[in-house]
Amino acid sequence: MTNPSEHGLRANSIREGDFGCTVMELRKLMELRSSDALTQINVHYGGVENLCSRLKTSPVEGLSGNPADLERRRQVFGHNVIPPKKPKTFLELVWEALQDVTLIILEIAAIISLVLSFYRPAGEESELCGQIASNPEDEKEAEAGWIEGAAILFSVIVVVLVTAFNDWSKEKQFRGLQSRIEQEQKFSIIRNGHLIQLPVAEIVVGDIAQIKYGDLLPADGILIQGNDLKIDESSLTGESDHVKKSLEKDPMLLSGTHVMEGSGRMVVTAVGVNSQTGIIFTLLGANEDNEEEKKKKGKKQGVPENRNKAKTQDGVALEIQPLNSQEGIDSEEKDKKAAKVPKKEKSVLQGKLTRLAVQIGKAGLLMSAITVLILILYFVIDNFVIQRRTWLPECTPIYIQYFVKFFIIGVTVLVVAVPEGLPLAVTISLAYSVKKMMKDNNLVRHLDACETMGNATAICSDKTGTLTMNRMTVVQAYIGGTHYRQIPSPDVFLPRVLDFIVNGISINSAYTSKILPPEKEGGLPRQVGNKTECALLGFVTDLKQDYQAVRNEVPEEKFYKVYTFNSVRKSMSTVIKNPSGGFRMYSKGASEIILRKCNRILDQKGDAIPFKNKDRDDMVRTVIEPMACEGLRTICIAYRDFDDAEPSWDNESEILTELTCIAVVGIEDPVRPEVPEAIAKCKRAGITVRMVTGDNINTARAIATKCGILTPGDDFLCLEGKEFNRLIRNEKGEVEQEKLDKIWPKLRVLARSSPTDKHTLVKGIIDSTIGEQRQVVAVTGDGTNDGPALKKADVGFAMGIAGTDVAKEASDIILTDDNFTSIVKAVMWGRNVYDSISKFLQFQLTVNVVAVIVAFTGACITQDSPLKAVQMLWVNLIMDTFASLALATEPPTDSLLNRRPYGRNKPLISRTMMKNILGHAVYQLVVIFILVFAGEKFFDIDSGRKAPLHSPPTQHYTIVFNTFVLMQLFNEINSRKIHGEKNVFAGIYRNLIFCSVVLGTFISQIISAIPTQSLKFLKEAGHGTAKEEITKDAEGLDEIDHAEMELRRGQILWFRGLNRIQTQIDVINTFQTGASFKGVLRRQNMGQHLDVKLVPSSSYVAVAPVKSSPTTSVAAAVSSPPMGSE
């Protein structure tokens, strides 16, 4: 941690004086392992206790939490934050957007067109080079030949800016999402003797952290006290075996590693960039974009080689840089997974869209190539074969202009064929959905998960907390041979029996689980920590006993050995030393499992009496099964005394036998009231819900029936994990897909299952080939061991409240309220994304089909596309970009859940959509071709067909363009429905974005199509002088002419009057000098070669005579015939 130079001396004195160790010393200490580390701690620091006093912290009370002290620690030892990678700048995103091949082709064509528009061929033979607009009055139009090239470039710039802005906002949104996830990452820290949940970024060196099963360590530390602690260090070392941590052998705990078993406390010794994860990020050059710089940085780091090697095994370039150390760890873990787990296949929609885009691209390329070929052949045959012209060198630039024009038309066909709006629509739709899903308690970590969820055919859900409220309470108990249907009064029991119950529960549960007073008066007490343990502690409180007093008497430091709960044991045991000598072990766990290990049971007096197999079977039949059938989870509490010599604690099977049963309790976890309706919706939507739980099969069946997963009379299977494995595995113990395929279609409840069973089931359903479609499976999980199943599933849901960090990190979506109904909302949003894309596709493909056919046939028949390149780009840009916004932001409705999932193999364009696309295309083509080939007769205007090279825009083709755009606009409203609904206006007012886009596009189109000359007020505003005055000053012709040359480029239409006068004056001068009249026209036309106009204008008439002199009138009369003739 470097400090600003002015604080350098003070910082050093703080390091040496205030704290007994420096950052670098602690960094070096954390790089040591097992015996080396122990030696260093004991020799150099005098043990962990001494290290704590050097760091000015208490191993029991923690830091005081004094802000000045915390700030000083941050100054000396650093913040627990890893600086994020700099996001791409807007200019970088613009550069990326410019790499698009179609845009590059357009840019080249536009630049060629632009360059040629400023070229003026010399000589008088230009009339021999084919048709060129030769109306003297249109000389000004030639001056504007640059407009088409410039307009195409402008359109490209707008497309690029829109794309870049979209990418930029997407990046910003993801950073927001990352920071949201990061803020939710909290860790248990002891400060001032109180256990608090602290955001990971606020942890400082010297903090005492409480660690437990499922945690992802946010900083480096040294173990102070641990119970049966096992850590998965594979994210740092690549070794998959769990590492045992203890004060005697290896007390070093590293950031980015997962707690797989046990619990304990550690003192934080390194945070942020000084922690092991932080060092790796520095080595990877997390703050550098450049690969070379990364390599250089890696070499410069002064970290031992062997550590470096171990770490960089997983050092894959990181996708999303962490915003603090917790995120860093997540990314680190992601890299590890990326290195080892094969990449998930593309989402359903991505795959379909990619195939469709490739097909459309090929078709567009073919059409554009044929268009260019036909145009060139037609031009060459017409000019050099039919009209028998020869290729003159001075005509080459004009021919090149023709070819460039043809090339631009070809590129235009390609541009229109390729639906650029599609990726934009997908992104907008997903981003919009993700934002809205936040409000529905779905925190989406991977964008495509949102869309995949719409295709889900199966959901494998946990029971506790997802289908139930996760508010556990003990409602029945079996103690001393009596089955109590309600919680009994404490007077019923002898003090001795009560002591066994209270101690068995209070000591043998995580000390982080507690019951706190309600937040509001009259409310229920708050349960903090493990909910099952909270239910047991609540039972102690109901018996009018105080569990906290017992805990104060037996603090965690006095625990001799702890066997923490895990999915294999399904039990938890704590060993304490008796004051009189010997040991006592308290155990609790699933009733069937613990009872099998009991050989004695307490009677009413508190004496242990024999408990035989027959007694056990009777108890299961008369107590446990009736409880389970009422949907209760049964937990057995037992103990064992070791009076003689200390046994071998590692031999677990020997220790966990010969127990004495104290009590069996029935814990109720009520079904969430909204769940049955949500499951009914899933069934209607064609989604199968399966319950996968660790509970007893009777409990699971009862809850499944209450939820509606099982309905009476159905032919469905409920299996226990053991039975499930027996049915699907062969003699060698390998899973056989054929056997699994016979089971899973009917399986609805899997009870007493392990995380491995869950993974096997999910994998089996996904890999199955028995249905028409491959199944799309969503899975919920909260435990560390659910990671593999969450990863394997198409969509993994982690629990935001009960979920461990490991589960969250493996998931695609985090349920912030742990509620099953939120999954149903995710399905709805997913289907809405799919439908939004389909709506946009229907709209886009109609535009494409019509525009391509119009451009192609128009080019082949009239040698020019009725829709010009700039107009096509206008349609592409305005219509596509805004239409994607309008159609992609339709809110979802419940009707989305009334149909079955689309499935992976169903084509993106359904028959109904194809019917709509082709129907509209035929209708639009008929209208447009009637207008193109007979429009001039309907409206009594000049034809725009077969116009010369640089002729101005015509009223005829302006009508065609406007009609085309307005037809698309109304088709946008039609595209709102894709399942054959009749009312396309249904719910249109719910989507304000749609209404404003349609209205905005309509207004923009009207404005863009009004000829400038019709806006009289603009015209008059530009004129300061009357025509007569200018004519009288005709002697200053050279000056006027020069000034006009400057002004013409931008103000052609405002100076139409001046041009007419100039034409007359030129004619007079010609008569005076005796030159041929034809030469004048030729000279006038030479400047017009590169004119491609945007502004619609009507056909021109001869200039009216000006009252100046008789000669002028003659000139005007003489000059008028050639204007129309050629």
Describe the protein in words.
There is one protein chain. With 1126 residues, the protein is α+β, with helices and mostly antiparallel strands. It contains 42 helices and 26 strands. The chain starts with 7 loop residues before the first helix and ends with a helix.
Based on the model shown, name its key terms.
single chain; 1126 residues; 9-stranded mixed sheet; 42 helices; EC 7.2.2.10
**Segments where pLDDT lies below 50 for 5+ residues?**
1-17, 133-142, 286-344, 1025-1050, 1075-1126
Overall mean pLDDT stands at 76
Radius of gyration over all CA atoms, rounded: 40 Å
The biggest sheet amounts to:
9 strands, mixed
Please report the distance between the alpha carbons of the first and last residues: 83 Å
Record field, number of beta strands: 26
Helix/strand class: alpha+beta
In terms of DSSP E residues, the strand content is: 5-15%
Amount of helix? 40-55%
Number of discrete helical segments: 42
> What is the global morphology?
elongated
Enzyme class: translocase
Organism: Daubentonia madagascariensis (Aye-aye)
Domain Cation-transporting P-type ATPase N-terminal: 42-118
Subunit structure: Interacts with PDZD11. Interacts with SLC35G1 and STIM1. Interacts with calmodulin.
Short description:
The protein is an alpha+beta fold.
Walk me through the topology.
Layout: H1 8-18, H2 23-30, H3 34-45, H4 48-54, H5 67-77, H6 90-97, H7 101-117, H8 139-143, H9 146-184, E1 186-191, E2 194-199, E3 208-212, E4 220-232, H10 234-237, E5 242-245, E6 252-253, E7 258-270, H11 276-284, H12 291-300, H13 305-312, H14 325-340, H15 348-386, H16 396-417, H17 421-439, E8 442-444, H18 447-452, E9 458-461, E10 473-479, E11 482-484, H19 495-506, E12 514-516, E13 526-528, H20 531-542, H21 547-553, E14 559-563, E15 571-577, E16 583-590, H22 591-596, E17 598-602, E18 608-610, H23 613-629, E19 633-642, H24 652-655, E20 659-668, H25 675-684, E21 688-692, H26 697-707, E22 717-720, H27 721-728, H28 737-743, E23 747-751, H29 755-767, E24 777-781, H30 787-792, E25 795-799, H31 805-810, E26 813-815, H32 820-862, H33 869-888, H34 911-939, H35 955-974, H36 992-1009, H37 1016-1022, H38 1027-1032, H39 1037-1051, H40 1056-1073, H41 1077-1086, H42 1110-1125
Helix pairs in contact: 6-9, 7-9, 7-16, 9-17, 9-33, 15-16, 15-32, 16-32, 16-33, 17-32, 17-33, 19-20, 19-21, 23-26, 32-33, 32-34, 32-35, 33-35, 33-36, 34-35, 35-36, 40-42
